[in-house]
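Ticket opened by: R.M.
Priority: normal
Category: complex prediction / small molecule

The reporter submitted a protein together with S-adenosylmethionine and asked that the result be attached to this ticket for the collaborator who will pick it up next week. Submitted input follows.
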Amino acid sequence: MAPVNPIRVTERAQKLATEILRPGDIAVDGTAGKGRDTACLAQAVGPSGHVHAFDIQPEAIASSRNLLEVTALIDRVSLHLRSHAELVDVLTPAQRGKVGVAIFNLGYLPGGDASIITQPTSTDLALREAFSNLRPGGRLICVAYTGHPGGTEESDIVLKFAEEQAAAGLHVEKIGYYPTPGKPWILVVNKPAA
Ligand SMILES: C[S@@+](CC[C@H](N)C(=O)[O-])C[C@H]1O[C@@H](n2cnc3c(N)ncnc32)[C@H](O)[C@@H]1O
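Result attached by the on-call engineer:
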């Protein structure tokens, strides 16, 4: 499988999300960053849907808020200045098990402090919580990077999660996965439809 062009990887991940989301869905952006993925999810779930977006950096939450206000999508988004590992504490009881798409774009905030990166342990927990809260037919998407310090270790955790899901018989794709440092890849795991 050919490596995914890094410039196109986020676009590809967004397309993988929008082809699943329906108006009224709940969606999760595990790494809000500048809010681009959050805005894409918010557009796809429509005014009757809702997006929970997480980031541990106030700067990222502020950037995301700004984008969502400018695009008039803020009313359907909850921005959480907390770790994606706390996802379950944020979903209301009615939203648990009802998430259409959860997306994670790992690594660091582009243009921000490159030493603040997603971490293997919290990423692993968040991926598992997000997957277990998908609705039937829902999708987990995770963009993993191997080019920064710590990236390969985190990518290996994502890969282990992928292999466990595949061994359990789930539909798993590893788009652009190459055991070569420096290349991003996209994990896709679909929850079986009911
Ligand atoms: C590659 S950026 C995300 C880009 C974003 N999806 C966008 O569309 O602009 C990764 C983000 O993950 C955030 N992050 C790091 N650890 C986190 C954690 N435990 N929970 C939530 N976000 C985290 C970083 O602060 C950074 O903003």
